[in-house]
Amino acid sequence: MAATPRLKLPSQAKKGDIIEIKTLLPHPMESGQRKGKDGKPIPRKIINKFVCTFNGKPVFTADLEPAVAANPYMEFFAKVEESGTFKFTWTDDDGTVTTAEQKITVT
Amino acid sequence: MRPISRRRALALGAGSAAVAALAWSGNAKATPKDAAEAIAKFTGDKTAEKGKISIELPEIAENGNTVPLKVSVDAPMQADNYVSDILVIADGNPLPRVVTFRFTPMSGKAVASTRIRLATTENIIAVAKTTGGQVFTGQKLVKVTIGGCGG
């Protein structure tokens, strides 16, 4: 299921600015705690890792557990010193990887 | 146990709360001991200092399925000493670990927000580690009207 991630971050910033980044990936985050209509547990299927890098260098990582709500939302900050590309990666329990990129111009 | 979906439970209205609670009791429930173990594993042998961490959460969460959470640590993010990890624990959830945020000096500040699930009225505990070897902790109680796990 290739859902489209949503990103919100500025396209321009001044050198040394700390910018706010918001991301959201549509995903059910099935916790593995719920039971289906047949009374059997619904198997766990969540995004277990989120990574943000800037020009290949790590900025922010989150290890997600089933207690993160559906459509995992992440808001964090990054200090930008140069123009470049933010890359975001979400890893599903089943190994599916969703990625997104956004460029920023730093003056 | 009678299987009942959360959607149906909600549709049935207030009376269903008791039914949902019954459905819930079948699941394994974490104890404060599990939470303490998860924290001990995270901090190692270091003693956590109180303070420095602020946890922003609604005082009363009507819907435990999605509760906004913001954690911030009041510490500088320098290349040689920065907040590297924040672990968030919910001590009444079936699995106490909620999320772990990992920062780098490029994060600029040790602040992150997400949305979490809470099963019941419980304490949210945040533990932060710095590369300088300090450990900080803070906690906050949230009242949850409708739990957000299982059912």
What's the short story on this structure?
The complex is a heterodimer of chains A (107) and B (151). Chain A has 107 residues and is mainly beta.
Layout of helices and strands:
The complex is a heterodimer of chains A (107) and B (151).
Chain A: E1 6-8, E2 12-13, E3 18-24, E4 47-54, E5 57-64, E6 73-79, E7 84-92, E8 97-106
Parallel strand pairs in A: 2-8
Antiparallel strand pairs in A: 1-3, 3-6, 4-5, 4-7, 7-8
Chain B: H1 6-11, H2 16-25, H3 32-43, E1 49-50, E2 53-56, E3 60-63, E4 67-73, E5 83-90, E6 97-103, E7 111-116, E8 122-130, E9 135-146
Parallel strand pairs in B: 1-9, 3-9
Antiparallel strand pairs in B: 2-4, 4-7, 5-6, 5-8, 8-9
Structure description:
- The complex is a heterodimer of chains A (107) and B (151).
- Chain A is mostly beta strands.
- Chain A is built from no helices and eight strands.
- In chain A, the strands form two sheets. A five-stranded mixed sheet of chain A has the order 2-8-7-4-5, with no helix packed on it. In chain A, strands 1-3-6 form a three-stranded antiparallel sheet, with no helix packed on it.
- Chain A is elongated and about 60 Å long.
- Chain B is built from three helices and nine strands.
- In chain B, β8 and β9 form a beta hairpin.
- Chain B is globular and about 50 Å long.
- About 11% of the residues of chain B have low confidence.
- Chains A and B meet through β5 and β6 of A and β6 and β7 of B.
- β5 of chain A pairs antiparallel with β6 of chain B, so a sheet runs across the interface.
